[in-house]
Amino acid sequence: MKYADLSMNILLLLPTLFLSAINGAIAGDTRSVSEPVVPQSCQMLKANGAADSTSYIQDALNACTSGKAVYLTAATGSSAFYSGPLKLPSGVSLRVEKGATLLAIANPSLFDNGNHTCGTLDDTGKGCNPFIQIKNASGSGIYGPGSIDGQGNAIMTGKSQSWWQLATAAKNKNTRQNAPRLIQIDNSKNITLYQITLKNGPNFHVVSNNSNGLTLWGITIAAPANARNTDGFDPMGSQNVTLIHCRISTGDDNVAIKAGNASSAHISILDNHFGTGHGMSIGSEINQGVSDVTVNSLILSGTTNGLRIKSDSSRGGKVTDVTYENICMQNVKNPIVLDTRYDSAATGSLIPEYRDITFRNLNVLTAGTFTFAGYSASKPLSLTLDNVHISKGSVWHKQYAIIQGTVVEDGGGSCDN
Questions:
Q1: DSSP 8-state symbol, 16
Q2: 119, 178, 188, 218: which one has the fewest Cβ atoms less than 10 Å from its Cβ?
Q3: Would 98 be classed as within a structural domain?
Q4: SS3 159
Q5: Residue 309 in domain
Q6: Measured between alpha carbons, how far is 381 from 368 in angstroms, rounded to an integer?
Q7: Rounded CA separation 327/329 (Å)
Q8: What is the DSSP letter of 89?
Q9: Count of Cβ atoms closer than 10 Å to residue 77 Cβ
């Protein structure tokens, strides 16, 4: 652990409180979110095998009427569409039908944003355009039930390694890889991802930035546990977001709510299942603040971390009004981590503050390490534990934390799948 001076009590049993101090129901997404309806087709495209389909698909998207979608369908003997970067116009959607797969061509030159660094290592990691970009759009979406494959495991054209091998090399050399994100949503509103399978992203799978109104319903995100920087879903500086009925297994954060350039608020994470990955995270960039987050009915199985808030003095801010409720964890190494010194070497004056954090109806089936580490005596954590059950043999780390409620050492049973 980074905190050598933390207490090592196996179980912290705090005085039982009647939890009247909980701040009522914490608000997530302020919208009334219902199951999306797939738009009608404006054009149906047939799979053409190994051919480059970039222009084939982009031309159809550009010609599509607002409110409708381009459908990608399997053909006899072929289910694949290979493509370079695509852009969804405002109001236009893309549907990948059952049996069809849209694959990103593993050619860095196609994704290079003009600096001739895509597919290389440098200090910024910002040299690639995303595979699918939704920018300055309203009412666009991506629909299944087919698949979008980023081919993070494919050897890059003109290279001797895959995107994921490049990421591993970046870690070993303490630098950054230039690899494309799978789906990037910027400055947009009312965007939908529905019943689509996203897999093998070269980098993050879905990122929203400075957007308002985003629904991810019934999607699957999948990448190997050792595929570095393959976050599942990262809402950054975004408002009114719902992730519901989804399954996410990755090599990094399953979800990471961030607020580096703008605040993130009113986010609902509802009825999801997370497999391998680094867990349900907030941070590490929280400069502009994160608030009004609800995580309800979540199963975490085999994640490295369970429920985590992470930051440090170089990128900290306020995280407030967060409720985790009806959570089940099994084979999770670190079930709860509230960490204000994520990078122990970080310097700066952006001190993380985590307040009004509630954990209610948690069942942790296997022993793990729990960390509650505030920044200082003047800036402690403030949280409530209500009906939290952990397993025998768990380790408890606590420093600069004001904790109300109880923990019971009787976790057991099974998580319903």
A1: P
A2: 218
A3: no
A4: coil
A5: yes
A6: 20
A7: 7
A8: P
A9: 7
Q: What is the pLDDT of residues 141-187, one digit of tens each?
A: 999 999 999 999 999 999 999 999 999 999 999 999 999 999 999 99
* Residue 280 lies in domain: 115-408
Active-site residue (options: 252, 292, 312, 356): 252
The phi-psi region of residue 91 (left if phi > 0; otherwise alpha if psi is between -120 and 50; otherwise beta) is left
- Note whether residue 182 is domain-resident: yes
d(CA 114, CA 183): 19
Domain containing 254 — which CATH number?
Answer: 2.160.20.10
10 Å CB burial of residue 228 (0-12, 13-18, 19+) is: buried
The helix (H) or strand (E) run that includes residue 60 is helix 54-63
Q: What pTM was computed for the model? A: 0.93
Q: How far apart are CA 86 and CA 76, in angstroms?
A: 25
Q: What is the predicted pLDDT for the residue at 414?
A: 82
* In contact, 221 and 169? CB cutoff 8 Å: no
Name the burial class of residue 416, with classes exposed (0-12), middle (13-18) and buried (19+) by CB atoms within 10 angstroms of its CB.
exposed
Mean per-residue pLDDT for 279-306? Answer: 98
Helix, strand, coil abundance in the chain, percent, nearest 5 = 5, 45, 50
Q: Is position 106 within any domain?
A: no
Domain count, the chain: 1
Instruction: Assess contact for 254 and 278: CB atoms under 8 A.
Output: yes
Q: pLDDT higher for 406 or 221?
A: 221
| Mean pLDDT of the 110-135 span | 97
**Residue 205 region, left (φ>0) first, then alpha (ψ -120 to 50), else beta?**
alpha
252 is catalytic: yes
According to DSSP, the β-strands at 93-96 and 69-73 are parallel
Stretch among 9-13, 132-136, 151-155, 380-384 having the lowest mean pLDDT: 9-13
